[in-house]
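Internal tracking record. Fields below are filled automatically when a chain is submitted to the structure queue. Please do not edit lines marked as system-generated. If the sequence contains nonstandard residues, flag them in the REMARKS field before resubmitting.
Queue: standard
Priority: normal
Entity type: single polypeptide chain
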Amino acid sequence: MNADFKLGVECAINALSGNLTEGGTTAEVLRYGLRLLELAGRLARNPEALKRLAAELDDLPQQPSDADYARIYQHSISPLGRRIQISGNPALLQQPAVAQEIRSLLLAGVRFAWLWLQLGGRRWQLILQRRPVLSALDSLNNTL
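SYSTEM-GENERATED OUTPUT FOLLOWS
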């Protein structure tokens, strides 16, 4: 688990510093992040969606799969607003396993955005205060 967390922190550092190695642009990653923050905010303002999400998470099997998380994202998060448009190879994006993995990652992103907002983080900080956020991520990365 610690290694997965470290990988996520390193990915965040690379995304915010513009050092993307697997295609994409910093602007694209920032756009995804801002949309995830928007969805987390909509979720926070929608008690019915929160109840539905909690119930679906409680009903997860002991060993959940990407398909389980993707279903939860589709039922609880996706209806909250404008959908996130993922860029990429259409032939790959149309494959069910790839789509499930993307939705699973989007659910994880909404969870991260939810935590960011709970800790007092704001959308504008990712744009205007990247240096302090990067410094905090570097400190966290060094402790892992």
